[in-house]
Amino acid sequence: MALRSKVRRPKIVLSLVAMSLLFPALAACSKDDGPEPMLDAFLAGWRTGTYDKVTFVNPTGQGVAADTVKTELRALEGVFRDTPPTLTKQAPAVSQNLATTQVKVAQPLPDKTVWEYTTTVRMTKAKDSWQVVWEPAIVHEKLTKGDELAVRRLAPARAGVFDGTGAELVRPRPVVVIGIEPQKVKDIDALVKELTTIFTSGAYDVSTDDLAKLPARVKEAKPDALVEIVTLRREIYEPIRDRLRALMDRGVQFREEEWLLSPTRTFARALLGTVGPVTKEIMDSKPGVYQVGDQAGLGGIQRTYDDRLRGTAGLSVVSSRKASDGTVQDTPLYKVDKKDGQKLQLTIDQKAQIAAEKALATVKQRSAMVAIRISDGRLVAVANSGADNLALTAQVPPGSTFKAVSAYGLLDAGKVTANQIVPCPKFLTVEGRQFKNSNFLELGNVPFHTDFAKSCNTAFASLAPQLGPDGLLNAGTALGLGQTWDLGVPAFTGRVSAGGSATELAAAIFGQGQTIVSPVAMAGVAAAIARGQWKQPVLLLDPVPAKPAADGPALKPTTVDPLRAMMREVVTAGTATALKDAPGGAVFGKTGTAEYDDNPAHTHAWFIGWQGDIAFAVFVEDGVKPSETAVPVTAAFLRNLR
User: Would you indicate the residue range of the signal peptide (predicted)?
Assistant: First the structure.
């Protein structure tokens, strides 16, 4: 008996050890531990996809393989399968062999917000172990087998841009997208030849280089794709409509859309910019903000204020189910509301803007014009003949238009009077440098107002020492040059030469040397003289710029009255007599010829001034003679305003 006892005892010990090694899960989930260890294992598996320590049954009590649960749960998660939620459990409510647990789900969304909701996990007890009841409703209460979570983007409505009267400048307008459908093309080379004939017959923004690339693009595209050639405003498309439609059976196809556009193709284009399909560059600069096919500002104000105009996309989390006919049915579960864009309101006056653009079209050179309403400082026209916004951002010498500034400084400091004799010789030498007048003008001993009207450089150069090293700078500051403005968009306010040599000051006093300006800065000078006070020009009414410059002090009548008379004399008997009989009343102004390099033949042309309540500045790049370029542009503008 003792021997048998010794034999049996080791067998019993070995059996107990073996059981503890083979069934650790039973020990972990014993009746003493409750349902929480099994619940924790499941919640960890939900995030990681590992369920090797979890036992599942379906609602009828039948066992479910862990791999089946993994597959079904990932299918239900849909778009979120690679962004697992944060799961926070409450204490299970246990009643005999059933445990129910509320779990808070915090699911990250594509817009960086978090969708929070509560779901329920049920568990049953079989003998001494707990089992998770697997059902799609664990992921979300409204999900059933075959559903999947999806996110639908709610695109915001892009806001428009309005003019000073509240009329909409940039709004949806009809366009036609013209392209080629590869599967319908029979002879691509012959087709491109005909398209080249059509598109080179007018201004359609289609280059011959772009057309030459069409065969390769068509070859690489899907058979039913639309290989786009150009998008045209409907009014631009209509004249060539029939010629293009005659090519439809050979592959040319059309798609009608609405784009956010200004009144005309050229209307304030450099200022406003355009709206079009978002570029890769813009998408890369703001990850997650745009999707392919979104509209974005591609330049100018549309780009600067793209965030405001575009608004913020919303999203809808849905339970998505594909029907037998291939259609997709969505059941909304959660929504982040979109925020439509906010409008911009500018001070631009459409009539004045169009008048300025038509006037600039009379010269072949790049040019710009700015017009300001004197009474309130509003910019009513910001016009450019090219793609660059020279009107606001050019940095060029002002030439003799700057004599309005230096004359202000001389008169205000009492260094000269309008009637004082200031000789105008053909040449003047300062520190070994010889200064001359345009066309070798020589007036002799004449009053200062005549020097101004006839634009005598040597007379002004002789007066430069009277202003001292900072006199020009102080005069320019009083008239707004070089100050810090806030128009809401980039603008160059000028830089006035100061503290230089006698030669530099002699050049700077008539707008050469180191002094540089922009058209908007010089239009502000003209408006300040006309008004009797400098005020920062205004371009944006909504939103209002945060830090506009403070108004300058009132200018002394004893200074600006004679200066105004001198600027009138420029028109009646000086360098701008072509404006003497301009429609709309008396014109006041100053011409300018500005050398911009060491070649005297290379000159920009200027005219600044005002008529009635409108002050303006005209700049013509390489315009040479103001009387032949800038002054006629001004005359055309004033006629167009009527």
Answer: 1-27
